[in-house]
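[Primary structure, fold]
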Amino acid sequence: MNENVMNFNYNGDNPLDSTGVPRKNLVVFFLIDTSASMKGKKMGELNTIMEELIPEISHIGGADTDIKIAVLTFSDDIQWMYSIPMSAESFEWNRLNASGVTNMGKAFEELASKLSMSSFLDNPSMSLAPVIFLMTDGFPSDEYKKGLAMLKSNSWFNYAVKTALGMGEDADDKMLAEFTGSPDTVVHAYTGNQLAKLIKTVAVTASQIGSETYSDGINGISGKSKQELLGEQLQKLTAEEDDDFTFSTGW
């Protein structure tokens, strides 16, 4: 393996520029708030939705795409559901419990440490930008700016397909837009029905876009990045669902 392929400089190098590398592996990261405010219906509904979602994601991209799942939870502690990304076909969801505060900044730092070819992206045939999906019902209890700065200095994060979902009245959509880079890639759920629709819509749409192997300006993309395409798709999809959403009721 060429040393330049295995060790990327995070000061501006595009980690997708390596040549001669098959494009068939995609890691989908879920960052999930498990703080005390998620206790009860929110966490119960989220667990059920994720159990249903994983099999759907496993079929994205076709036979030549290996979808892997990595789940990072954050409250008092920062924990990975599994120590390495697991194939979506064999992934078993471990139901989550809620307690503690929202150490989102620490979660950002932990994610930054794993977005590396010496860690979670170590498959030598991996060339697709990862998909990163953040879900929370509140705002960080810790200082998140440091962790976010670490992520934004990471080339894999910069080229990732990023999206976020706020749950309930207290979710900080402005902060979530800082994470994704645009309010167009942030969606909001106020009820369990909305949560089910949005998690599935967002995760599947982001994974489908992430699994594509085209370059900017090819196949009718007209120079748009995957992140821009995701924003357009999410705005269109959520607008179509607005008539079904009841914003006067919640959890």
Summary: The helical segments are 3-6, 41-58, 104-114, 145-152, 155-159, 173-180, 192-211, 226-241. Residues 36 and 99 are 4 Å apart (CA to CA). The chain has eight helices and seven strands. Strands lie at 25-33, 66-74, 78-80, 86-87, 131-136, 161-167, 186-189.
